[in-house]
Design goal:
Number of strands: 37
Bound molecules: ligand C2E, magnesium ion
Largest sheet: 8 strands, mixed, barrel
Strand order of the largest sheet: 29-30-32-33-34-35-36-37
Structural class: alpha/beta
């Protein structure tokens, strides 16, 4: 069976009370009592003198026991001196010499009942009573005292049963204070034995004592001589003679200081019981409070006991209280110790648990975590950290494990005194898994307090190798052409800017734009993969020429940034580039030869805006491309002006189209024999608000370049067909069409729409195309011509003789008419060569069954000559200037009139 702490306390406390009840604490209580005696010293009443058979008396008499005559003498002297009573603390139970006994009996008789003789109990049932010879004159008084277990005398009796008799004690007799026989009282040892008058027995016998010391006083005769061995041990005063002890007992009674156990001793028990309760609960109180309270209670109890004993001759036993209080303190102490132990155990359990959790959390961390203590040792590391840095990190020195820059950062962090914000960065690890880039954060924490303050550094890191690689790749891709590795346009612009900033205007920079010619041919014939291979080789050759940067702008166009700005040397470089690129290329067994055009400009020519520099290089390149073969051209400001004009024109054309600023004029085509108008050519006109009248020679090429020609062409077709449908049925209309229209749109479909809307017969419409049409156009274009002809629309070849088309080819072209260019006509009539050409064309056309129209007939002579050569239809100022539709309508009306007239 187990007892709780409280149960044990209860048992212990009860045991304490039982022990107190059984008087087990008597010695302690006695000792406390003794100590209290020492607190005060009282003088004896002075009414009792001690007639002392001291060593000197023994020596003077010489024998022991003394002859009884000596006692007789002492009694006589005392009585003579007026002593009130005399008590003999001497054994008179046996006879001595008869003379002496008789003398003593006489003296006793003379004392008249004021003398008393010692009676005492011996060990066992033995006792000593005075001889009956003496007793007839003197009462016996008991002189026994009680020895406690320690052999100390504390208590004296009021009376004793000695043998067959009840005898009052000496103290009781001398003080007149009586009490029940065999009841004792505690002797008050605060009474000072030294204040008791001592008279040496021999002095008394020999009459040397002043009677005043004796008169009216009680005397007790006893021995103090050591040889007589009548001694007792008492508290406070040590060894005292038996007689003196009798006096102290008598004095105690005389002074009313018979020390009695307090009547309310039970109160103490109540207090002790309260203490017991306190003991049971003491565990719950704070140790300091318990100690303070119990100490105060102890002191208070002791003070009360002292006051009672000293002031009121009342005795209380406080030992049980003190012990109980001590037990309370002990109990509180034990419980404090145990509580602390428990708290400590719980704290360390929690610490262990927390530590385990932390270890687990760190070990399982997805990131690299390394914790370094103030000695620079690794105290914890995550699994990932071990993967990166090697196994068994814990316990190792961080400076040996970490790369130098990180180790230095950790050491620096550890040395810092203030908690700074965390610090992050990137490092390269040469770990177990090769070279890895990590992103890390270092935080420093302070642990502990005061002298135990330490710092730890936590390094958290993450592998960003793949991310950085991807970023680097993206960065490269964002700035480079993936095929050739050359820069892209944006990156080049940045390079140009950088170069200009570094240069800060002292020397300037130059750009060379390069375009490969016949590259498309390589692509088409050898395939794209070889085309790509060629581009790579081109990039390699360009790099090898040592420019600051090479960029590819797409297709076969490259751009070089070069530091050379002297125009002559720059052109030399550009020419070398174009020639070098023209050397044959080896492409998987194929030999490829291309040409390259180069256009160059410098910041001195074009300024420092990279965009402007690039566009100027491009203009120069365009100029170079206009030259056949490999050529290099330096930018000149005129190129810019021309381009600017073109741009202005472009905007204006757009606007004009939107505002419907275009209109058509019609130039008659005349049968020269009769002068009859057989048709008209529609010619576009534009009167711009700002630019004035703009020739089609200027705006048509612009519209072609921008693609606006499609829209414009449709409008012209519609307008011309609509107008023509209002004219007499035999009048034909010719409309010019650009090759670009055929390339970008479906001209037959447009024509069909126009005819449908206007209601004009297809046979009345002629589409004029130029020779250039057949140079660039493929089957798609000629196919359209076939379709037009199938619809019934006629095709005329305009400006014949100015282009490339050879006469031999003429027969195979899907055309109905040939318009001989005005440049031949203009030379008539003088120029024989022109005459021969015209003659040849006319003859050929006749054999091929193609109609002829001659352009630019300005004079009557020309008209006459041409007519002679067999040209039937003519067009020119001489025959009719281009005019608005009203004028032309009027012309038809007059012709009608003439006809009908
Ligand atoms: P073209 O088709 O050969 O047109 C004839 C040009 O010669 C016209 O110039 C006309 O005014 C001019 N001309 C006519 N008779 C004489 C003459 O006796 N002496 C001289 N010196 N010139 C004469 P224009 O109208 O300036 O047109 C020039 C060119 O613009 C045209 O040459 C044609 O190629 C193109 N063009 C004009 N209108 C259109 C159009 O509506 N569509 C397209 N695609 N091109 C057009
Ligand atoms: Mg024409
Ligand atoms: Mg013409």
């Amino acid at each position: 069976m187990r007892f709780g702490e409280r149960g044990l306390s209860l048992i212990f406390g009860t045991a304490l009370l039982v022990a107190a009840g059984l008087g087990l604490f008597r010695p302690i209580d006695d000792a406390l009592r003794d100590l209290r005696f020492a607190e005060q010293t009282r003088a004896a009443s002075g009414n009792i003198v001690f007639v002392d058979i001291d060593a000197a008396s023994l020596k003077a008499v010489g024998v022991w026991p003394w002859p009884r005559g000596h006692y007789a003498k002492m009694l006589d002297r005392l009585m003579a001196a007026g002593a009130a009573e005399t008590v003999f603390d001497i054994d008179f139970s046996a006879s001595s010499d008869p003379a002496g006994d008789a003398d003593f009996a006489r003296a006793l008789e003379a004392a008249g009942g004021y003398a008393f003789l010692a009676a005492f109990r011996q060990k066992g049932d033995a006792y000593n009573l005075p001889l009956s010879a003496f007793r007839q004159f003197a009462e016996p008084v008991a002189v026994n005292v009680a020895l406690d277990e320690g052999g100390i005398v504390r208590v004296a009796p009021y009376g004793l049963v000695v043998g067959p008799e009840k005898v009052a004690s000496a103290a009781s007799v001398m003080s007149g204070a009586h009490g029940p026989v065999d009841a004792g009282f505690a002797i008050d040892y605060s009474i000072d034995p030294a204040s008791i008058d001592r008279i040496s027995a021999i002095d008394l016998i020999e009459g040397r004592v002043d009677a005043t010391r004796i008169a009216g006083k009680q005397a007790i005769i006893g021995a103090s001589a050591l040889e007589l061995r009548d001694f007792f041990v008492v508290p406070r005063h040590g060894i005292v003679p038996g007689a003196l002890l009798q006096i102290l007992a008598a004095e105690t009674l005389k002074q009313g200081r018979a020390l009695e156990p307090l009547a309310w001793q039970p109160m103490l028990w109540v207090a002790a019981l309260a203490g017991l309760a306190a003991l049971v609960w003491a565990g719950q109180l704070g140790i300091v409070r318990v100690v303070a309270t119990t100490l105060a209670m102890s002191v208070a109890a002791e003070a009360a006991a002292l006051l009672l004993q000293v002031q009121y001759a009342a005795l209380i036993d406080t030992a049980v209280l003190h012990l109980m209080l001590a037990a309370i303190v002990l109990r509180a102490l034990l419980s404090e110790v145990r509580n602390r132990g428990r708290l400590h155990a719980r704290a360390s359990r929690e610490r262990d648990e927390t530590q385990r959790i932390l270890d687990r959390v760190i070990a399982d961390n997805f990131d690299g975590v390394v914790i370094v203590n103030s000695e620079c040792r690794i105290v914890a590391a995550s699994g990932f950290a071990e993967e990166m840095l090697g196994k068994g990190l814990v316990g190792q020195s961080a400076t040996e494990i970490l790369p130098p820059n990180l180790a230095a950062a950790v050491v620096k962090r550890l040395g810092e005194t203030s908690e700074a914000a965390s610090e992050s960065g990137e490092s390269v690890l040469q770990g177990a898994v090769g070279e890895r880039t990590i992103e890390h954060v270092l935080t420093r924490s302070e642990i502990g307090r005061g002298a135990g303050l330490r710092s730890v550094v936590c390094l958290t890191f993450r592998d960003v190798t793949e991310r950085r690689r991807a970023e680097a790749r993206l960065k490269f891709l964002s700035g480079h052409d993936p095929l050739t590795g050359a820069l892209n346009r944006n990156e080049l612009v940045e390079n140009v800017q950088g170069a200009l900033e570094r240069d800060s205007g002292s020397r300037g920079v130059a750009l060379v734009a390069v375009d490969l010619r016949r590259f498309r041919l390589i692509n088409d014939t050898l395939g794209h993969s070889l085309g790509d291979a060629l581009l790579k080789q081109v990039a390699g050759r360009l790099q090898s020429m040592g420019p600051d940067a090479v960029a590819r702008l797409g297709g076969g166009t490259f751009l070089l940034l070069v530091p050379e700005t002297d125009p002559k040397r720059l052109m030399g470089f550009a020419e070398t580039v174009s020639q070098y690129l023209s050397f044959p290329y080896e492409l998987e067994g194929h030999q490829a030869v291309i040409a390259a055009s180069a256009g160059a400009t410098t910041s001195n020519l074009s300024g420092t805006d990279p965009d402007v520099l690039l566009s100027h290089a491009d203009m120069a390149l365009s100029a170079a491309k206009a030259i056949a073969g490999s050529a290099a051209v330096l930018f000149s400001p005129e190129m810019d002006a021309a381009l600017r004009q073109k741009r202005t024109m472009d905007g204006a054309v757009r606007r004009a189209l939107l505002n419907q600023d275009f209109h058509l004029v019609y130039q008659p085509q005349v049968e020269m024999e009769s002068g009859r108008v057989v048709g008209v050519e529609a010619l576009a006109r534009w009167n711009d608000r700002d630019l004035g009248a703009v020739s089609p020679v200027r705006f048509i090429p612009v519209a072609e370049e921008t693609g606006l020609i499609v829209e414009l062409g449709q409008w012209i077709l519609d307008a011309a067909c609509r107008q023509a449908s209002a004219w007499p049925g035999e009048i034909e209309v010719a409309v010019n069409a650009s090759p670009v229209q055929f390339e970008l749109s479906d001209v037959p479909a447009q024509v069909e729409k126009a005819l449908e809307k206007s209601g004009l017969a297809a046979s009345r419409l002629t589409i004029e195309i130029t020779e250039g049409f057949f140079v660039g156009g493929g089957p798609k274009v000629t196919n359209q011509l076939e379709r037009l002809r199938e619809m019934g629309v006629k095709i005329a070849l305009d400006d014949f003789g100015t282009g490339y088309s050879s006469l031999g080819y003429l027969g195979r072209l899907p055309i109905d008419k040939i318009k001989i260019d005005q440049s031949f006509v203009r030379k008539l009539p003088q120029d024989q060569q022109a005459l021969a050409i015209i003659q040849t064309i006319v003859t050929l056309a006749g054999s091929l069954d193609k109609a002829i129209v001659v352009e630019g007939v300005e004079t009557a002579d020309q008209a006459w000559m041409l007519r002679l050569m067999g040209c039937k239809i003519g067009q020119g100022y001489h025959l009719g200037r281009p005019a608005g539709p009203e004028a032309i309508s009027e012309l038809f009306a007059t012709a009608q009139e003439r006809l009908s007239a």
